[in-house]
Amino acid sequence: MGRIVNQMWGTKHWFYVFGMALALLVGCNRPTPQPSVQITFSPASLTLQQGETKEVSLTLERTNLPGLVVLDLESPPPTGVRATFEPNGTEGNTTTLQVQALGTAAVGDFTLRVRVSQGSFSQTADLPLRVEQANAPDLRISLNNLTPSIRQGQYEDLLVDVQRINVGGTVVLTLEQQNGSPLPSGLSATFSPSQPGSTVSILRLSVAPTATISTYPLRIRATLGTLERTLPFTLTVLAASSESDFQLSLSQYLSVKRGGSLSEPLTITRTNLAGPISLSLEQQNGSPLPSGLSATFAPEPADGDTADLILSTTPSLPLGNYLLRVRGEQGTVVRTALVLLNVYDEARLTASGAAWVAGQDNSGAWQVVAPTVGEYLLRVGNAGGRYGWAVVCSRTEGSPSTTTHQVRVYQLTLGEVRDLSLSCPPAATPGTFSNLSGQLAGLSGSYGQVAYGISADFVDPARDGSFPPTPAYPGYLLQGVRNGTAHLMAVRYLPPSTPGTLFQADRALFERSYTVSGNQNFNLNLTGPTSFALEGSYTATLTNPNPGAEGLSYLAYLTPTTQTLYLADSQQKAASLTYRAIPAAQRQANEFYVFNAREATFAGLNLRSRQVVQGLADPANLSAGFLNLPGASLTLLGNQFQASWSPGYTWLGSGTRLFSLQLAQLAVTPSTNLEWHLHLSQGWLGTAVSYAVPDLSQSCAATQTPCVPLPSNAPANGWQAVWSLQRGLELDWSLSAVQISLPLPNWLPLAQSSTPPAGINLDGFSFAAASDGGILNPSALSVQRLQKLGAPRLLPAWLSPR
């Protein structure tokens, strides 16, 4: 028995040992697990408009794939699409794919095949990509009842919603049969308004007593320029009823100026019904009228066939459209009639010398505005009080003559600016130009400066008269000064301090009201009896300059007729300087000091700049800091320029805030230049971080219906082609975030003024701006370019002399 057990144990043990050996043998020959990676995209698909850039997050789920992997596209992206990985190689599990669709990118549905590779291993995953046309304009219309039923001899009010997508303007509405034929006999329709600049219109569909009882396939047609959209619906005409009934009828699109009132007749059409009808006005949903709007009827109740609706508004009633309904009631019979009430206010503009003025009330529809008694009046009837002015100034100067068309666009709100007064420069440059030169005595080997009108010359001891073409030291030459009368002033500087270049004035002289009427020579003596010493010592510093930027700061003294007289001038990167002051006895009213500091950073064709200005009536120690840069860009989407800037932009303290987009194109046509200056108030923009430069080509005259420019293309009839930005030309641009201590109505005229206007108190004036800009379409650069990229044009000349 024991031997049998031992034999059995021996057999089991042998099988166990054999199994273990076999398992080891099989394990040794088992293949190594293959590497793999699963690629997940977030978002799972991507839609881009032409000119747009978006990012996709990639997550890698690895199996047996440690170490560095490389990411790329297995095949080239579609035409006009760029794709970059950041980083394009990683030992981790995440990376970012940035996809950019250029303005010329092909439109359609595509696939980006992302590849992850390591040595001979690679694996792919597909990312669906859709590229859409940039800013593709579209119209969408809807109706609150697509199957209305109306009895013979009655009508019904329907609501039409109009949605504009990437397009502004007035929409023309018509009603027709679905085959395009006119309405059949017995049917009629009115839209109120028939050309809505807003998003809603009331369609009154009337059925005559003789209309045929039937079903009618109809459609609403909406047109805006070349856009056309239709909405089909079905009308059922029912037989007339002999039951007691009535209907209400009045003008369905009413407007009233805020704070005013109106009276509107109401017609009551009765059918087998006599006696008084109670009348009331309520909101379209049946709720009471909003605060600030009240209504009465005379008589009320109405015994006859007519009554008057009297509407009254308070000055505090918000602007905009109010969808209301008149309610009539007698016993169990209740009938209503819809009314669209627009509560508006007015913006006023004085624009002397303008070639063309247009306005828009937040609808994107720019229409020529004709002057009324020297003023332009624009009705503003949207809830935000948002509106815009477009003013064109044209001037011709130089020899040979060059015409510059300057387009100024102001996007504002009534709460910020109600009345605006602007003036255009003379259409042609009056008078003649001359040279003013002479010797500047009393410099004692130091530097000097001479200023007259808007001209200035810096007298450098190292100047030898060869180039630039000015007299050798100590002579001065002001070339091309306009004939007339202005202040002639000079200043002497102390020897520059070290390190860096810093000048501080110690003596000056004035020749007030000096007249130039031809090439003249006039010597100035800074140690003569009319000169005087500057007094006191004051400091001006910057609290946060960028040491890597090109810095510039100065303390200037300005008069109403002379651009600037520097009292201190520093081109050090760390802007800190001292200055002496003009004696009080030598100063006149409306003459003041300006501290200006600017730093600029260039990168190729792009320029980023920050500027801060402080005005003060009397000399004082002061300091200033810069705004943050906005991080702006300009792109061409379709045929429309669009500026964008960083959404996280922060302002310093308080004050008037706006964005200024400035564009300049040379040689728009032979001997013609174009400048655009767009001022966008923060109230108008709200939280928006992009702005599409308006296309004014659809502008029309004030009396035109529909809005189409007249063929003559005269300023009074619409927008001219020579006033338009050309997409194929080089564009010098800058987008600035600006903060000013002055109210907007005071600042906007100052920004266009060539000299400091009288009567403006600039004591304590402050201005800060951060700008980003460059040259769009650099492929157009050529040796024929007439101007180099300069600092952003943030200030008028009299505040920004450098």
Topology of this protein?
Blueprint (H helix, E strand, L loop, with lengths): L1 H28 L6 E7 L3 E4 L3 E11 L5 E5 L7 E6 L2 E2 L3 E8 L6 E11 L2 E12 L5 E6 L5 E3 L3 E11 L6 E6 L9 E6 L7 E8 L7 E10 L2 E12 L6 E5 L3 E5 L3 E11 L6 E6 L9 E6 L7 E8 L6 E11 L2 E20 L3 E5 L6 E2 L7 E5 L5 E12 L4 E12 L5 E5 L9 E9 L6 E5 L2 E5 L15 E8 L1 E10 L8 E15 L3 E2 L2 E2 L5 E3 L1 E8 L7 E9 L6 E6 L5 E6 L10 E12 L2 E11 L5 E3 L8 E5 L2 E5 L11 E14 L2 E10 H4 L4 E3 L38 E10 L3 H8 L14 E11 L26
Parallel strand pairs: 2-9, 11-17, 19-25, 25-31, 30-51, 32-38, 32-39, 41-47
Antiparallel strand pairs: 1-3, 3-7, 4-6, 4-8, 5-7, 8-9, 10-12, 12-15, 13-16, 14-15, 16-17, 18-20, 20-23, 21-24, 22-23, 24-25, 25-28, 26-27, 26-29, 29-30, 32-35, 33-34, 33-36, 36-37, 37-40, 37-43, 41-44, 42-43, 42-45, 45-46, 46-54, 48-49, 49-52, 50-51, 50-53, 53-54
The helix content, as a percent range, equals under 10%
- Shape field: globular
Query: In whole angstroms, how far apart are the ends?
Result: 118 Å
Please state the structural category.
mainly beta
Spans with pLDDT under 50 lasting ≥5 residues? 1-28, 783-788
Give the overall average pLDDT. Answer: 85
Q: Summarize the biggest pleated sheet.
A: 17 strands, mixed
Number of helices: 3
Organism: Meiothermus hypogaeus NBRC 106114
Protein name: Lipoprotein
